Amino acid sequence: MVSSCGVVSRVLVGLALVALGACAGDGDGGTADVVDSGGDTVSDVGGGDGGPLVSAVPRAVTVARATAIPACTLHVDAASGAGDGSAATPFKTIAAAVAAAADAAVICVAEGTYPESLAPGAKPLTLAGGFQSGQLFAVRDSSLYVSKAQGAGTGSFVRIEDPGPTEGQLTAIDGFEITGYSQAIYRDIYYGQRFDITHCHIHDNACTDPQQVGAGFALNNVSGTIADNVIARNTCSRGGAGALNDSTNTSQVAITGNRVEANAGDQPDISHGGGLYLFANQLTITGNLFLANTVTAWGAGLYVGAYTGGGQTTTARLSYNVYRDNRAGASGGGFFCDDSARCVSDHEIYDSNCGGNIFLDSGPDDAGPTVATFDHLTSYRGLEVGCGAPGAGVQITKNNTAADSFAFTHAIFWGQATGRDFETSCGSGCTKAKVSVAYSNVQTAFANDGIAIAFGASGLISVDPLFVDAAAHDFHLQSAFGHWTPSGYVTDATSSPALSAGDPASKTPNNPDRAGTRSELGAYGDSPEASYVR
């Protein structure tokens, strides 16, 4: 990070923090008709069966819910006596089932409170919660029949240390409420394994040691899926919601459909990552909502970093994520791509993040370049630190000689402070940074303190994009021929100037029956929820 901040940046080794080096510093729409995919007025709203339109745009869950019934091999019910683990006479505790389990066991857990700390050692297994008590494990809905892992303020619900499962072996946790621990789900071993966390409500866990990272989950050297969880109100020095590390530089992790809300990174003055704090060779981050997370310094919603000096590289592919109302004490209220990471973003929305919406930074002197691309971006109302006034959309800083590269296409910037859609600062290696913006709605005047920006073909110089309802977080574009809603396409009194302002050479269809039209700008352009044009 840029040295002007005068503090020490840190990275993960295992799952502890170590010093690395010096850091940086509306338009009104008409009430209208619902239209079909051809633009004609119709009376039957929705899909072919008359129901709501089904969108292929990924979105975060609002409730963590598991209903699928796996092939259970052992059973647990807190309301039972000490049984043998069968569906008829289940174990009373999860620990008893873990002790009896063979490798690859599927332990099914009925509703109830389980004040347990599990250490399965080298056994790979699946924990599946959310079964109705007294129904022979034939009924499952984890949102109704809650299997609650309850900590006493320390330790973990599941803790795996050497020896543990190895490559190809799976540990899975599905359909639990997990609360009251220091680091709720923990795995720290120098070799890899598969690891899934799905359909869990992970909340109100708080790290007890300032060197810990990741209160909701803290995982080192895993490949797998973290999906459809609600992760809320967890607190740690970094990564309140969760942290990944990858000392093997081989991890591949998909983070999909999670609601990451009101988590905090509370390391005094220099915390990175209030929500998620991630280092992994390959990350796919899709359809998550990062909402109201806080951090003392950088990256309140999401932090993605690398450690190229230690042989750990990161490529993160981000799509259809929403970052809203997150608060950073320094920069990057929504997202921070840092320290030689490669971040590839498409179809993302940044809405009212304090400390600016996006922060991009170089690495230390011996690091490779930080590279980030953003296509079909909506950056709305980036705010100052403290949230009291309009602030920056994208902040870029540099203090090394690596060839950092940042590109933005088909973007909409609207609602930032005057001249602050972009702001740049540089201490050294300034000419090595390349920043380009093309086919975007943007202020070309920007706060330039050492890094130039090349504004290419655009055609829209900061004009009102006519969002459907930005105050209600609806960033679809108004269209006289119809904008997407969950109930069907609705026509507006006027059309957004951003509907056909994209690259004419791409000729990418933004709807199946609109092939050959220029791309719509913003997060919904060239997606199943693009507005109609003629």
Global mean pLDDT: 89
Structural class: mainly beta
How many separate helices? 1
Q: List the uncertain runs.
A: 1-11, 18-51, 508-516
Please describe what this structure looks like.
With 534 residues, this protein is mainly beta. It contains one helix and 42 strands. The chain has a 32-stranded parallel beta sheet that branches. A four-stranded parallel beta sheet has the order 16-20-24-28, with no helix packed on it. Strands 1-2 form a two-stranded antiparallel ribbon. Strand 40 and strand 41 (474-477) form a beta hairpin. The chain is globular and about 70 Å long.
Reconstruct the topology from this structure.
Elements: E1 8-13, E2 16-22, E3 34-35, E4 74-76, H1 94-100, E5 105-110, E6 112-114, E7 125-131, E8 147-150, E9 158-161, E10 170-174, E11 177-179, E12 185-198, E13 201-203, E14 217-227, E15 230-232, E16 235-236, E17 242-245, E18 252-256, E19 259-261, E20 264-265, E21 276-278, E22 282-286, E23 289-291, E24 294-295, E25 302-304, E26 315-319, E27 322-324, E28 327-328, E29 335-337, E30 342-351, E31 358-361, E32 371-380, E33 394-399, E34 405-409, E35 412-414, E36 422-428, E37 434-438, E38 447-449, E39 454-455, E40 467-469, E41 474-477, E42 489-490
Parallel strand pairs: 4-5, 5-7, 6-8, 7-10, 8-11, 9-12, 10-12, 11-13, 12-14, 13-15, 14-17, 14-18, 15-19, 16-20, 17-21, 18-22, 19-23, 20-24, 21-25, 22-26, 23-27, 24-28, 25-29, 26-30, 27-30, 29-31, 30-32, 31-33, 32-34, 32-35, 33-36, 34-37, 36-38, 37-39
Antiparallel strand pairs: 1-2, 3-42, 40-41
